[in-house]
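The records we work with from here on pair a chain with its fold. These numbers are not coordinates but entries in a learned vocabulary of local backbone shapes. To see the layout at work, look at the sequence and tokens printed below.

. . .
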Amino acid sequence: MRVLIIEDDPDIASNLYEFLESAGHTVDAAPDGVTGYHLASTEPFDCIVLDIGLPRLDGNALCRRLREDARVDTPVLMITARDTLDDKLKGFEHGADDYLVKPFALKEVAARLSALHRRHTGKSIQHTLTAGALTLDPRTLRVSYHGHDVKLPPKCLRLLEIIMAQPGKVHTRDALEHGAWGDRQQTSDTLRTHMHVLRRALTQAGGTDPIETVHGVGYRLASGQSGAGKA
């Protein structure tokens, strides 16, 4: 998994980072809410470990903004010293998927993250992504545009899935490369070439290109496709 830790306590953040990395996961960390929100809303992560008592932007507000403003559905495990039922309910109301009270065992954190990731992956597989006349079924990898089947190579399918999962959002080049290849590519030609193949295939099927280039940033679905969702 690729995990983001948003925690202002350096000792807790370091322990989580080292433990999860030693277990084979790719880990990033943010020391405050604003930095954490930026990373979580612009980079693809499989799970987020989120402290509630953060400087600059607290965990509850951050989680709510991720769900409502950035439309990020990455599973969130909240960690906090607040252990009342009201505190837990508030976390869930703001969009958390699970809740763990400090102090906690590192093995339990890893186990809960794995469970969240499995459930999220299974949930995602059950839904066909739709964006206007464009559909993608993750179960069969079938893509249809204006009623015509579109044949795509695996990396192009992954890029399309990333873009369709959050319609209307501008996806940065770095985020797309991480999502499709797991790391930043040495040359920008790799992403550009795959996006060209993807857009040409869609244009040949539907007559119009549903993907817009946001110069200097990345790509997004065209405005006519942004009334999209999951069917």
Confidence is low (pLDDT under 50) at residues 226-231. Helices lie at 10-22, 33-42, 59-68, 85-93, 106-125, 154-165, 173-181, 189-206.
